[in-house]
Automatic annotation (TrEMBL):
Residues 17-308 form the NADP-dependent oxidoreductase domain. Signal peptide: none annotated. This is Aldo/keto reductase. Gene3D superfamilies: NADP-dependent oxidoreductase domain. One of its GO terms (cellular component) is cytoplasm. The keyword RNA-binding does not apply. The lineage of its organism: Bacteria, Pseudomonadati, Pseudomonadota, Alphaproteobacteria, Rhodospirillales. GO terms for molecular function: oxidoreductase activity. InterPro entries: Aldo-Keto_reductase (IPR050791), NAD(P)_OxRdtase_dom_sf (IPR036812), NADP_OxRdtase_dom (IPR023210).
């Protein structure tokens, strides 16, 4: 495993992190035993950064990770990154976001219990609460840093103005945001802001939820799978996007690697301040992703990748319209 410094003030982490969301139903059913085995395999491979959210499976994901850490006595090997604030209802629906200071401390108390730990390594609001100044939310986390319950503060899916306001309250370790060959919005200003302020990037969606993994086929999304309603997977869009994948496959095969490996390697090659989060929920997919660590992309490789998948070439937004409207990171002007 290779390691990188996560921002100017953050911890030293593995060059790749493991995103655990898919282990808790967002992409359809998953196997509990295989999920735990995958978490153990990641830690055994030297991955230290494990990313979750308290709303993934309405607490299921945190309990799963807690079980895996207890079973393998691996707490000291794991750096836990937790997003909070997403509100769910008993039917699994989404009802908003809560970034109030009292809510921050309440969410944290429950996360510590579910994970079975005494502190969270990186704690971050999953979205900007439009009704609560970011200074108040970050200020509440800062109090928890002082109390020893949190080590570092992160952000997620916010724009440059919000990043600056948050960083004025407390040092920010990293911004978690979607970044892939087909989701390159952060290149329009957010990435530069983070670099100016010494804030690292943890990039999720590096395979665009499996779309550019080289394994996805039209019709693979079943009931309960987020992709069944995601714009990029809908008729008219998915065909155009899979054509991009085939163009990328030609580049990957010429390089002697898989589509997933070259897509992950591309994200990692955009800077040592960027840590890709691999959303594997099976050991075989994790092993394939880890192979990207050994993929060195030359300038010629990068040019061929850009030709195969030009910036802005993807058809469809990365979320449905109602969700896009709530993303501070997508606001312009």
């Amino acid at each position: 495993m290779q390691y990188r410094q996560l921002g100017a003030t953050g911890p030293r982490v593995s060059a790749f992190g493991l995103g655990a969301m898919g282990m808790s139903g967002m992409y359809g059913p998953s196997d509990r035993a295989e999920s735990i085995a995958t978490l153990h395999a990641a830690l055994d491979a030297g991955i230290t950064l494990i990313d979750t959210g308290d709303f993934y499976g309405s607490g299921h994901n945190e309990m799963l990770i807690g079980e895996a850490l207890r079973a393998g006595a691996k707490r000291d090997a794991a750096l836990l990154s937790v997003k909070f604030g997403g509100l769910r209802d008993p039917a699994g629906g989404w009802t908003g976001f809560d970034g109030r200071p009292a809510a921050v401390k309440n969410f944290l108390a429950y996360s510590l219990q579910r994970l079975g730990v005494d502190h969270i390594d990186i704690y971050r609001p999953a979205r900007l609460d439009p009704n609560v100044p970011i200074e108040d939310t970050v200020g509440a986390i800062a109090e928890m840093v002082q109390a020893g319950y949190v080590r570092h503060i992160g952000l997620s899916e916010v724009g440059s103005e919000t990043i600056r306001r948050a960083a004025a309250v407390h040092p920010i370790a990293d911004l978690q945001i979607e970044y892939s060959l087909v989701s390159r919005g952060i290149e329009d200003g957010i990435l530069a802001t983070c670099r100016e302020l010494g804030i690292g990037i943890t990039a999720y969606g590096v395979l665009s939820r499996g779309l550019i993994s080289g394994h996805w086929q039209k019709g693979d999304a079943g009931a309960g799978d987020f992709r069944s309603v995601s714009p990029r997977f809908q008729d008219g869009n998915v065909e155009r996007n899979l054509a991009l994948v085939e163009a990328l496959r030609a580049v990957a095969e010429a390089k002697g690697v898989t589509v997933a490996q070259i897509a992950i390697a591309w994200v990692a090659a955009q800077g040592r301040d960027i840590v890709p989060l691999v959303g594997a929920r099976r050991r075989d997919r994790l092993a394939e992703a880890l192979g990207a660590l050994d993929v060195a992309l030359t300038p010629d490789d990068l040019a061929r990748i850009e030709q195969a998948v030009p910036k802005g070439a993807a058809a469809g937004d990365r979320y449905m319209a109602v969700q896009m409207a709530h993303l501070d990171s997508e606001k312009r002007g």
